[in-house]
């Protein structure tokens, strides 16, 4: 019984680690500044793309699912 509980805790811990907090967004490839979502999104070929903008104003569409 004790072993069973330990296994469950381990599974829960792995689950927590495995769940991403958010879509990981790379910094702008041009100037390496932080990309922030503009709130715009669109559908393309069955995927959802979200619009991101870096601090210098470069705009990128990033697949979020
Ligand atoms: Zn940029």
Strand count, sense and closure of the main sheet?
A: 3 strands, antiparallel
Q: Which percent range describes the beta-strand content?
A: 25-35%
- Mean pLDDT equals 80
Strand order of the largest sheet: 1-2-3
Compute the number of strand runs. 3
Report the helical percentage: 25-40%
Topology:
Elements: H1 2-18, E1 36-44, E2 47-53, E3 59-63
Antiparallel strand pairs: 1-2, 2-3
The structure holds zinc ion (ZN).
Short description, anyone?
This protein is of the alpha+beta class.
Describe the fold and architecture.
This protein has a domain at 23-65. The relative contact order is 0.18. The protein has one helix and three strands. It has one helix spanning 2-18; strands spanning 36-44, 47-53, 59-63. It has 65 residues and is an alpha+beta fold. It has a three-stranded antiparallel sheet with strand order 1-2-3, with no helix packed on it. The radius of gyration is 18 Å and the shape is flat. Bound molecules: zinc ion. Zinc ion is lined by residues 28, 30-31, 33, 54, 56, 58. Zinc ion (ZN) binds next to loops.
Give keywords.
binds zinc ion; 1 helix; alpha+beta; 32% strand
């Amino acid at each position: 019984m004790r072993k069973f509980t330990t296994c469950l805790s381990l599974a829960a811990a792995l689950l927590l680690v495995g769940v991403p907090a958010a879509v990981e967004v790379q910094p702008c490839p041009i100037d390496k500044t932080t990309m922030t979502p503009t709130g715009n999104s669109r559908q393309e070929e069955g995927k959802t793309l979200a619009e991101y903008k870096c601090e210098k104003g470069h705009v990128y569409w990033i697949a979020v699912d």
